[in-house]
Amino acid sequence: MTTVLESLNQALHGAMGADESVYLLGEDMLDPYGGAFKVSKGLSTAYPERVLTTPVSEAGMVGIAGGMALRGLRPVVEIMFGDFTTLIADQLINSISKFRWMYNDQVTVPLVVRTPMGGRRGYGPTHSQTMEKYFLGAPGLKVVAPCALGNPGELLKQVILEENDPVLFVENKLLYLQKVMDEAALAEFESTEYLVPGEYPSYELTVRGAPPPVITIAAYGYMAELAREAAQQLAFEHEIFVQILIPTQLSFEDNLFIEEILLPNLERSQRLLTVEEGTLSMGWGAEVITRASHALGPKLQKVGRVAAAEIPIPASVPMERAMLPQVEDIVAAARSMV
Amino acid sequence: MPDNQALYEELYRIRRFEETVLERFSSGVFYGTTHTYIGQEANAVGVLAHLNEDDIVFSNHRCHGHFLAYGGDMRGLFAELMGKPTGIVGGRGGSQHIHWKDFYSNGILGSTVPAATGMALGEKLKGTDAIAIVFMSDGTLGEGVVYESLNMASLWNAPILYVVENNEIAQTTPIELGVAGSIAGRFEAFDIPSKELDTSDVVEILPVAGGLIEEMRQQSQPRALILDTCRFGPHSKGDDTRDEALVAQMRAERDPLNIHAPRLSAEERQSVESEIDSAVDRAFETALADPEAEATLP
To answer: Are the beta carbons of B229 and B165 closer than 8 angstroms?
Structure first.
């Protein structure tokens, strides 16, 4: 079975093979190293003229890639750790995400910034964070996060080859070694793929054979894996039946995940629990709940949020474990809602 | 190369455009603010005379002079300042954020240099012969990402000309409070050859810029041109904290129009000036008569 990392690596090979305008920029990209997490392995050997290993200059490389994209190339930038996206925030938020609109739709900016986010490896305060919430309010910037469902590589390939707007592509580190879930691996679950035109895919998981869900859990990336474990515990130990809705498009451009997928399901379950690995305040979950609440009013009976505690991430693994959301936190939150 | 009369036309068009902007600002026809190029006209005219068809120009907040020297339309720029749909970018960008053909500008100084460097690199990777020219200033030198860009431009041989218009003042901060060390030394540190000129004479700037651009076209490498220049007007409007006597002295000694005008006969000069005066007025009045933007989101 393929891991998420292998799937993403194959996608980069596929995208570079399919389109000569695809370039990779990033730190330590050259083989045999192939990038700090090896997602870019083999690419500098296969396409030496199109892989630019950069100095330690995140803002510069993203700004330069933005210029390349304005002139018709399809650059993909690897930011070694998601924590370093603060360094590219000005390039992305103040300029790159605005170019198309402020130049009156006369340009396109097909730039993809890929980066690993997330903790649970003991890397400490500056190499473990989940930072995408800081980018979710920037108009013109899409934020996309693969999960272990569907085809994460195909998602990346589609973003690289077909998008004409800048995309921040968020890869949770713990997903890398996770197997991509095929039907056999999901034997205990029923899974549905939602394909709404204009939005990247979303997924639904429910425990196979369970009665209708009484809680809808919205989660993305690696949190979908934790929610899956929690769903089993809730079903078998507590007889609480939940569904998990998993978007891959986190930004709210056309609000399609909310309107087409979340709301129809909430009409039935009437309870919404969001799960994210970033810190709680001003997070993705807060926005999802607000939108659902506006749309459903009193029909939305209960809401809950699971997120990281609001402190920097400790390096010590037991302390980190206590600080980040865990399966038992999701179970406890769900139990408190019924 | 443009002859003396053509050069004077370019200089004078920028001057009259910018003076018109300042004269009319108080009447409330323009939105936001503006950053005029008065005093620096010879830089844009002397550098951009060497452009080929597909070459890229990236400018900053003080972009009107660059845009006009690039060949941009005065009515479109007036209309843009007025926030009208007939503006260069439909009123979305205003004075600082415009794009037409291969000309771009952005009011974020930490973005112009990396974006332009990426454009130059992109054209090189695509196999075209286009080069990029980015206009910066002593103020831009304070942004850290500039040095990241110079480093990568040198490592990857991006065909870009970094033009530093050193007017020795960033908004209200004089260069001695904002820039340590040498400007040329900054480029030298990255092995980017540079030339420096302390002049407001377009005829002096023209061949030096041309020589650097020719080298870039031959060798496909970055170059830098440092132009010590004088900003006669305020940073934007009414925010000039400099000694009035100093500005008066600059105007007396370093006016690119006064320096170049004696190369034309009085009749030639008058004919150029009256033609451009009416062209600027016409462009302004046309833009003013253009329909307003609707108060709905595009």
So the answer is: yes
The reply to whether residue A103 touches residue B126, judged by beta carbons under 8 angstroms, is no
Domain range spanning residue B161?
A: 4-289
Is B118 within 8 Å of A63 when comparing Cβ atoms?
Answer: yes
- What CATH number corresponds to the domain at position B241? 3.40.50.970
Contacts of B142 in chain A (CB under 8 A): none
Residue B298 placed within a domain: no
CATH class of A189-335: alpha beta
pLDDT 10s digits, A203-257? 999 999 999 999 999 999 999 999 999 999 999 999 999 999 999 999 999 999 9
ipTM of the complex model = 0.96
Asked if B31 reaches chain A (Cβ–Cβ under 8 Å), the answer is no
Residue A112: band (very low, low, confident or very high) from pLDDT cuts 50, 70, 90? very high
Name the residue in chain B with its Cα closest to that of A92.
B111
CATH no., domain A4-175? 3.40.50.970
Q: Tell me if chain A has a CB within 8 Å of the CB of B115.
A: yes
Query: What are the residues whose beta carbons fall under 8 Å from the beta carbon of A23, sequence distance 6 or more?
Result: A50, A51, A52, A65, A68, A73, A74, A75, A76, B125
- E strands in chain A: 22-27, 51-54, 74-78, 112-117, 142-144, 167-172, 189-194, 202-207, 215-219, 242-247, 271-279, 302-308
The angle subtended at Cα A70 by Cα A67 and Cα A72, nearest 5°, is 115
Evaluate whether residue B297 is within a structural domain: no
Across chain A, mean pLDDT equals: 97
Residues 6+ apart with CB under 8 A from B287: B75, B76, B78, B79, B82, B84, B86
B269 within a domain of the structure (yes/no): yes
Count of A-B CB contacts under 8 Å: 119
